[in-house]
Please model this.
Amino acid sequence: MIIVIKPEASKGAVQGFTALLEKQGVKVHLSEGASQVVLGLVGDTSRIQEKSLLAHHLVEKVIRVQEPYKRVNRLFHPDDTRIAIDGLDGKTRHIGAGYVGIIAGPCSVETREQIISVAQSVKQAGAGFLRGGVFKPRTSPYSFQGLGCEGLELLIEAKKATGLPIVTELMAIHQLEIFDTVDIIQVGARNMQNFTLLKELGGCRKPILLKRGYAATITELLMAAEYIMAGGNDRIILCERGIRTFESTTRNTLDLSAIPILKKQSHLPVFVDPSHATGLSWMVPAMAKAAIAAGADGLLLEVHPNPEEALCDGEQSITPARFAELMNVLRRYAAVEGRIWDEEDEGNNETP
Amino acid sequence: MIIVIKPEASKGAVQGFTALLEKQGVKVHLSEGASQVVLGLVGDTSRIQEKSLLAHHLVEKVIRVQEPYKRVNRLFHPDDTRIAIDGLDGKTRHIGAGYVGIIAGPCSVETREQIISVAQSVKQAGAGFLRGGVFKPRTSPYSFQGLGCEGLELLIEAKKATGLPIVTELMAIHQLEIFDTVDIIQVGARNMQNFTLLKELGGCRKPILLKRGYAATITELLMAAEYIMAGGNDRIILCERGIRTFESTTRNTLDLSAIPILKKQSHLPVFVDPSHATGLSWMVPAMAKAAIAAGADGLLLEVHPNPEEALCDGEQSITPARFAELMNVLRRYAAVEGRIWDEEDEGNNETP
Amino acid sequence: MIIVIKPEASKGAVQGFTALLEKQGVKVHLSEGASQVVLGLVGDTSRIQEKSLLAHHLVEKVIRVQEPYKRVNRLFHPDDTRIAIDGLDGKTRHIGAGYVGIIAGPCSVETREQIISVAQSVKQAGAGFLRGGVFKPRTSPYSFQGLGCEGLELLIEAKKATGLPIVTELMAIHQLEIFDTVDIIQVGARNMQNFTLLKELGGCRKPILLKRGYAATITELLMAAEYIMAGGNDRIILCERGIRTFESTTRNTLDLSAIPILKKQSHLPVFVDPSHATGLSWMVPAMAKAAIAAGADGLLLEVHPNPEEALCDGEQSITPARFAELMNVLRRYAAVEGRIWDEEDEGNNETP
Amino acid sequence: MIIVIKPEASKGAVQGFTALLEKQGVKVHLSEGASQVVLGLVGDTSRIQEKSLLAHHLVEKVIRVQEPYKRVNRLFHPDDTRIAIDGLDGKTRHIGAGYVGIIAGPCSVETREQIISVAQSVKQAGAGFLRGGVFKPRTSPYSFQGLGCEGLELLIEAKKATGLPIVTELMAIHQLEIFDTVDIIQVGARNMQNFTLLKELGGCRKPILLKRGYAATITELLMAAEYIMAGGNDRIILCERGIRTFESTTRNTLDLSAIPILKKQSHLPVFVDPSHATGLSWMVPAMAKAAIAAGADGLLLEVHPNPEEALCDGEQSITPARFAELMNVLRRYAAVEGRIWDEEDEGNNETP
Model:
C-alpha cells in the first residue's frame, strides 16, 4: 500500500503518522521527493482501510498495490478451478479447466410442453445444462414475473425427462429451501452486490453462476465471488453479460476483454451470456463465437421454440434449429485451439 | 406505442399482424412511408410487451410514447407529494412540496457517545433527521459490516435523546421486523432493483428513501418507486447519489440534471446525497449548494465528530463544525427563491 | 419521422402545426390516443431537423424512423464494398467482401532500421499492409510527438523495401500534400468528428481508415463516414478501437458487438484495433481472435522489435515472433467459416 | 512515480532495472513487501514515460504521484487567473478571480436582424459577452453548417452596435486569419484533442474558451489547456458542457462536480454551458443556478428571439425574456457568497 502525503505536511507530522501506522503492525518505507513524500506500507495491510487513511488530514492519495481479493485470486491458487456436476443421465459434466460448457434454455419456463421440448432439443444439439427462469427480476411491476414454484416444478420435470442438470435464478434467501433439486444457482446481475444473499450462498454447497452487474467493475465482480468463497463455497462460475455504456444500439456492451482479465486474475471459470448482453437474437451467434475465441469457458444461450410468442425476452432468443446450427459452428471454433467440448467426454472419464 | 415495420414486409403480412394486435384491444393506425410502414397503437397498451413485439419477425423497432410508470407519474398526480413525519420532540417535519429537509449523521453508528453527540450537533445546526448506518453494504467481505442490531439500539437511543426521526438502511427483508422504531427506511443504491425487497416495502407504511442505483437510468429509478407504490405505499423519497461514468477523479458523477427531470416526471420529493456521490468531504459543500439551487427537496449529509477515526467512509464525512457552517450558507441559498426551511415551521403548523 | 405532441395541446393548435409541416412537402398521419396525439411524417423528411421540431412548443418527442445516413447505408447499397490496393510488389490486396486483411507495424516510426526490420517481419508473417505513426496525437505536449516528415520518409523506404502498402495517420489538412505515397490515410479517434478534415478527405481518392472516437456511438461513426462519402470518396474502412466506459482495468472497452451492427447497417469493411483498445500486449491475441470470430474484415496490430524500448505505446506492442505465432492461429480461426485470407490470393487473381 | 514490480522478478533483475532507471537521473527507493517489490522514483520524472515503463517485462503497474500538467497546475501558480477583455463600449470585462461572467447569444448567427436584436437584449439583461456560431460542427453533412464568413461579418456588426466583446468557435487553423476581431476564440468539445489546433492557439494572444470533450476526463481537459499554455498563451477559460454517460434523458450529463475539482487543481477560470449539456431549454435555468452555486466563474447561455424557428439547436435556446428573468435570479444566487457580478464593475475600475 502506497500513501502519498500532502505537499504542505511538516516533517514532524509525517513522523507521527508513520508511528501511528507502524502500531498497526506494518513497516513503513519513506521516500522523499522534490515536492512530495510517499510512504510505502509493507506487511499485512489487509486490515488497514484505504478510505480511513484518506480521511486523515495528511493524506493526499492511497494506492493499493495488492488486489483486495484473496480466495478467488490466481496468485494464491494458480490452477484452474474445475467444477464437476452429475446429471440424472449418469453423465458427469465439467466446467472450467479447458472444458467448454453450454447452458441453454428459455428465458422463462412457460408450460410443461415448452420446457420439455426445449430441453430435448438443446440436449440433442449438445448443450450440457438446461436453463429456465422461474422467478424473474423485471424492471416493471406490471411485467410477467415468472411462474414461481410452479415453474420450478416444470423445470424439474424437464430435468428428469432429459437428465440435464438445471440452472435457475434465485432472487431471495427464503427461496433457497426449494432450490434443493437445482444443480446450479444463478445470481442475477441486479443481485451481484446483494451482500446478504452472497453470504448465504457462501454457506451452501451448490455451484453458483454469478453474473456481473451491468455497472460492476471486474474487481467488484471478483469481490462478490470473494464473499461467496469466504463463506466456504468455492464452486463459482463468473459470467460476463454486458455492461452499461453510452452506446444504445445494443442493450448493453458485451465486455469480452473481461474474459482474459478474469482468467488472469482468478482461477474461476468464466462464462458469457450473449443473449442478455445484446438483447437481439440475430447478434447472438457472432458474439457467441467471439466469446469462445476470446477464451470463455462456456456460454449461456436463450433458446425458445417460438420466440415470437415468448412471455419474456423473446427478442433475444434463438430457435432450437438455429441453436443446433450455432453449436456446430461453435464446436469448430473451440477445436481451433483444442478446447475440450463437454460432450466428447462421454464414455471417457479420463481427465484432460 | 409506435411499431416500425421492416422494409421487406409484405402488405398481407402487415395486415395479419395488425389484426393480431387489434385482438389485444388496441386500435392500430397505419402510416405508409416511402420506404417503411409505421403502426401507431392507440388505447391501453400497458399489457403489450415491447420486448415481445420485438421478437416478431415483421418488427424493426418499437417505441413507447407513454412513460411505463403510472402511480409515480406527475401526469396522473399533478400535485407534489408531501410526507409528514412526527419526531419524539413533538415537532412534525415535512418533506417535499416546497420544504427543504436535511438528513445528517455518520456513515456508521459506532458508539453510544459518537451517535448521541452527532445527533445533538446536527439537531442544533438545524437538521431535521438523523441518519446512521447499522447494516452496511460493503464491497469487501473483510470490511467492517456495521454494528447490526446493537447499532440500531444505539441509534434509537439517539432518537430518544434528541427527538429527531431516524433514517437507516435495510439490507434484507427479515430485518423489517426490527425496523419498527425506524422513521424512514433507506433502500441503498445496490438494492434499488432488488425487486423482492421493493415489493415487501410496498406493503409497509413507513416512508422509504430510495437511492438511485449508480448505473440506473432515471426511468429505472421511477420504475423502482412504482414497485413500492404499486404495493400501496406512496411515501417515497427519491435520492440521487451519483452515477458511474468514465470520470474517475470523483467516486461517482453526481447527476444534478436528474433533479429537474425527476420533479417534472414525478410528484415525489427528490433528495441528493453529495457525500457518497463525490466520496470527498471537501467537495460536499459545493455540491450541496448546487443541489439546492437545482431544486432538490433536501440533502443527505455525512457528519462525523472525528472523520480521521471513522470506521467507515471517513473521507467523505464533514465535522459538526463544518456542517453548522454549511447549514448557514444553505439556508441563504434556499431563501433565494423562498424555499421553506424545515425548522422555520416550528410552532407554525400552517401549510405553505 | 414520428412526432409526439404534448398532452395539453389543443386540437386547433395541432391542426395548425400539421399544416405547417405539410408545407414542407411531407404527408402527416395523425393518431389520437387516449392521452396523447402522435403525428407520423411520411415522405422526404431529410430536410426536416429533429432539433428544430423539438423547439416547437407543441412537441414532446421526435423519433426518427429512418437512419440519418444514406450513402454508407446498406439499405441503399446492399453489396459489401471491396477496396483493392496495389503494392509495389505487384500484388493487389483486397479489403472487405470476405477478405481478411492485416495491417501491422510499430506505433511510431523510430529509425530506418526499426521500420524496415518490422516491415520485413510482418510481411513474412503474412501481413498485407504496413502501419507506422509519424505524426502522433499525444495527450501531453511533453510526450514524443512523432518524427514527422522524416518519419514519413523512413516509412516510404520500408514500403519500397518490402512492397507493402503503407498506412499512417493524418492530423491536419495541410499534411495532405505530403501524403501522396501513403496508400491508406488513417483518421484517428480524436479526429473522427473533425468535420473540416472529413470534408477535405471526401475530396481525395485514397482509402481512408476511419477510427471510431472513443465516445462516439455507432451512428456517429457512420455519420462521420457519410461526411467522407458525401464528398465523393467511397473507399472507407471503419475501425473499432475501444470505447470509454467506467471499467478501468483495460484502457478502453473493445466493443466487438459493433462489428455485426456496422456490417448490418453499412456495406463498408470493418476493422478492429485490439492493441489500442486494450492497451496491454498480453491481451492482444485473445481480442484479435475474438474480433475475427465476430466477423471483422481485418485487424490493426502493433508490432515492435523491442517493445521495452519503444518511444511510444510499447506496452501494447507485440514482438515480431509473437505476431507470427498469432497470425498462424488467426488463419485457423478465419478458416472456420471459410474467410479469404488475403495472402492466399497470391498468384491467383480470380475474385471470390 | 511508483513502480510495482511483478512478483516473479528476481532480486538481480530488479537491481539491474534500478540501475537503468538511475541512469535517467532519478533516485530510486526500494520497498520490499511480503509478496511484492515497489520502487519509488524521486527527482525529475517528467521525461520518464509511464507507458514505456509498462512495456518492461519486470513492471506490473506504474503510478504517477504528481499530476502530468504544470503550467495550468495551481500547485505552481496559486493565484486565480483573471482575464480582462475590453469592449468597444469602453468597458473592460473581467473573467475569473471572483467575477461572474455571462456569455449569451444564439447557437448560430442567422440574419443581421436576429444577431443585433439578440445582442441588444442580452446586453440589456446584463450579459458581458455575445456568442454566436458561424462555423458549426454538425454530426450530419446534410445539416446547416453555419453562415461562415458572412456570419462572422454579421457578428462583428453586432459587436459594433452594442460594444459587447464577441465569442465564436474556430474549427480549423486556416480560419485564424479572419478571427482578428473576435475577442474570445472558442474551441469546441470535438476539437478539445485536436492537438495541431491547440498548438497553433498557443501561439496566438487571444483568450481561448476551451470546451471539455464529452468523453474527456478532467485531467485530459487540463492537458489540453497545457498544450495552449505550453505555447505561451495563458488566457484560457475552461468550460464544462456535459459528458457522455448511459443516461439518455438528457443529451449529456452535466458534470458539475468538475467545477470544484478544476478550481482546486488549476488557477484557470471555469465556465459552464448548461444549454448544450442538457439540450433542453426548460432545464437551462435549474442547471445555470446550480453551476453558479457550485462555484462556476461564468456561464454560456443560448438565447434566441424565436427558438421555434432557429436554424440550429432551437430546443436548447431560451428567449430574451426568459433570459432576463434568469439573470435576475442568477444575480441573487451569486450574491449569496458575495461574488462580483461583472456589470457592477461599471464606472468602478478598482480590482476586487
In short: Residues 344-352 of chain B have pLDDT under 50 and may be disordered. The domain at 2-63 of chain B is CATH 3.30.70.1140 (Alpha-Beta Plaits). The radius of gyration of chain B is 23 Å. The first strand of chain B starts at residue 2 and ends at 5.
